[in-house]
UniProtKB/TrEMBL annotation:
Controls the rotational direction of flagella during chemotaxis. Pfam families: FliL (PF03748). This is Flagellar protein FliL. It comes from the Bacteria. Residues 1-28 are annotated as: Disordered.
């Protein structure tokens, strides 16, 4: 029995020696990959940051040269850019009649929406050239759309912008994109 205990103690000592040797073998000098990561990566990051700062703070050149190249407002520049709709053209307002529409409040009741709308148009005599049939079609399109709205749809600037863009789309479908450039909501009241 004593022999068995000696053998068990010897085996335990051998295991301890192996673990110490294993630990010693595990501690190697850092490899080239670790050096590349810990030295090279920060160098690359600093270089990219320097390039970004240079591009950000260097400016875009001389402003006078850019203005001369672009030409005056509304003119087509020598490079073909510039001009186009809405750039420097005179727009004239045309007020429509006030719209009064009953809209659902979402709880089974109704509210009254009163809205004043103005078209911006490049034609100074737009009101004179607008026919009665076009006026009726515009009113029909606007009322059909506005009746489907709820007061929540008109809440906030984003809601009003969506309504304004939809009214512009409907007006341009009837009159043409060249006759109406924008729709302004000059008065809005929900009672």
């Amino acid at each position: 029995m004593a022999d068995e205990e000696d053998e068990i103690e010897n085996e335990g000592a051998d295991a301890e020696d192996e673990s110490e040797d294993g630990e010693g073998e595990g501690k190697k000098k850092p490899g080239i990959m670790k050096l590349a990561l810990f030295i090279g990566l920060p160098v690359v990051i600093l270089a990219l940051g320097g390039v970004a700062a240079m591009l950000l703070f260097s400016g875009g050149g001389n402003d006078e040269d850019q203005v001369a190249e672009a030409g005056e407002h509304g003119e087509v520049a020598s490079n073909g850019h510039g001009g186009g709709a809405g750039h420097g053209e005179d727009l004239y307002p045309h007020d429509l009649e006030q719209l009064q529409i009953s809209i659902s409040d979402g709880r089974g009741g109704f509210s009254i929406l009163q809205m004043d709308i103005t078209f911006e148009t490049p034609d100074e005599h737009f009101g004179d050239n607008l026919t009665e049939a076009e006026t009726r079609r515009i009113a029909d399109q606007f009322l059909g759309f506005l009746r489907e709205l709820r007061p929540e749809d008109l809440a906030g600037s984003a809601g009003l912008e969506r309504v304004r863009m939809e009214l512009l789309r409907r007006a341009q479908l009837i009159l043409g994109e060249d006759r109406v450039r924008s729709v302004l909501i000059t008065n809005l009241l929900i009672v």
